[in-house]
């Protein structure tokens, strides 16, 4: 298993007379499997909300979803299950998948009661999954339907960052309409995972299985991208590096002189992680110039190897005295994807501050951006939210969550 990196600039040429030129760089990063390589062993931890609000159908459908995932695990995989309300308990401690019948019995014994403390569930889940993470793909599925009323959201985010440092990915699933979309998104983003929305109980199995399919496609883990900038080249000052596929995430950049590192997490075989970097290039003399270099470090659990480094890939531009713009359409699509997300973020901020008219304008802009991307379903959600606000209605909690997800991903019709 090795990493595959494809780089592309928004325009490979610059005007040699320009003192400052902006360019966007995209990196499509995926894993390539050798023919003889088998799927990696999985180390899965389910952290399930069993608070009182999950009574009856919600908890029963979550039980079914959890069992459907467990039935897909192989003998070499490991599993742990945490149930939490205002306290947390490991109903299945980290262990190789063996006695499926006993595990199902433990799941079916779960009852809904008490309040909600997400950080207690996360803390215990990280402890359990850490026991089996060697040479495996370690993922947490965290499901909750409510606010963290008995917990501490800041502690949740600290735990998410800790999980990332431990090479553990956290995927979050919001159930119903009352969960905190900001907190669950930040947990998933911090631990390089995905955010899912279970709007109706009947969708629980589908959302669990989609995340599990993604987990099965992981080929490399703990990937970190390092960008070296040449003299006269700089990053944009605000949020210069973001992931735009498979979902949009503002990435944290760690600078070290002219080197900049971001954590990517797992690299998959069936889909690319697309990274968008915003650069500014100083004036260049006519000719070919290297402006940057990139390298990805990663772990290969199948080979039992850590901190493998890819080849260094140079990024070059041609400075010309007779410059003619040639926009790369694929990079433009990545720029629009990030724009859709940021436009919606601005709309949400304006709505929270009481500027409804400003929120409407930005949501309409985001809807138009989605149409440019060919994201018709996303455009519909964003425009519907704008229209409701425009006629004086408030967005329901469910509509707010749909709007957020429409900005962050491409909605499948």
Automatic annotation (TrEMBL):
<protein>
    <recommendedName>
        <fullName>VWFA domain-containing protein</fullName>
    </recommendedName>
</protein>
<dbReference type="InterPro" id="IPR036465">
    <property type="entry name" value="vWFA_dom_sf"/>
</dbReference>
<dbReference type="InterPro" id="IPR051266">
    <property type="entry name" value="CLCR"/>
</dbReference>
<feature type="domain" description="VWFA">
    <location>
        <begin position="43"/>
        <end position="215"/>
    </location>
</feature>
<dbReference type="Pfam" id="PF00092">
    <property type="entry name" value="VWA"/>
</dbReference>
<dbReference type="InterPro" id="IPR002035">
    <property type="entry name" value="VWF_A"/>
</dbReference>
């Amino acid at each position: 298993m090795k990493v595959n990196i494809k780089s592309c600039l928004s325009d490979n040429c610059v005007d040699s007379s320009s003192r400052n030129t902006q360019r966007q760089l995209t990196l499509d990063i995926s894993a390539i499997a050798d023919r003889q390589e088998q799927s990696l062993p999985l180390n899965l931890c389910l952290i399930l909300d069993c608070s009182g609000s999950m009574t009856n159908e919600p908890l029963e459908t979550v039980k079914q979803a959890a069992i459907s995932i467990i039935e897909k695990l192989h003998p070499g995989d490991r599993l742990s299950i945490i149930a939490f309300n205002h306290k947390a308990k490991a109903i299945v401690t980290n262990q190789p998948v063996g006695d499926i019948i006993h595990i199902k019995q433990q799941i079916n014994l779960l009852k809904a009661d008490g309040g909600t403390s997400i950080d207690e569930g996360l803390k215990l889940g990280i402890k359990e999954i850490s026991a089996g993470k060697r040479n495996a793909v370690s993922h947490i599925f965290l499901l909750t339907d409510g606010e963290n009323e008995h917990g501490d959201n800041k502690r949740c985010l600290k735990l998410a960052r800790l999980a990332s440092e431990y090479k553990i990915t956290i995927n979050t699933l919001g159930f119903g309409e009352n969960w905190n979309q900001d907190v669950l998104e930040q947990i998933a983003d911090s631990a390089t995972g995905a955010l899912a929305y279970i709007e109706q109980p009947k969708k629980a199995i589908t959302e669990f299985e989609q995340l599990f399919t993604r987990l099965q496609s992981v080929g490399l883990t703990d990937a970190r991208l390092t960008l070296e900038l040449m003299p006269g080249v700089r990053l944009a000052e605000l949020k210069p590096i973001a992931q735009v596929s498979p979902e949009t995430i503002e990435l944290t950049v760690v600078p070290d002189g002219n080197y900049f590192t971001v954590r990517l997490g797992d690299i998959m075989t069936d889909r690319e992680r697309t990274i968008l970097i915003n650069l500014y290039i100083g004036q260049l003399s006519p000719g070919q110039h290297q402006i940057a270099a990139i390298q990805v470090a990663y772990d290969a659990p199948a080979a039992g190897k850590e901190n493998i480094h890819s080849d260094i890939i140079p990024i070059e531009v041609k400075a010309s005295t007779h410059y003619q713009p040639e926009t790369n359409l694929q990079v433009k699509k990545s720029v629009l994807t990030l724009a859709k997300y940021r436009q919606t973020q601005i709309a949400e901020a304006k709505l929270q501050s009481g500027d409804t008219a400003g929120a409407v304008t930005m949501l309409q802009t985001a809807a138009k951006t989605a149409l440019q991307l060919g994201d018709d379903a996303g455009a519909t959600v964003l425009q519907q939210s704008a229209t409701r606000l425009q006629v004086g209605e408030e967005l329901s909690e469910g509509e707010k969550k749909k709007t957020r997800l429409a900005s962050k991903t491409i909605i499948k019709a």
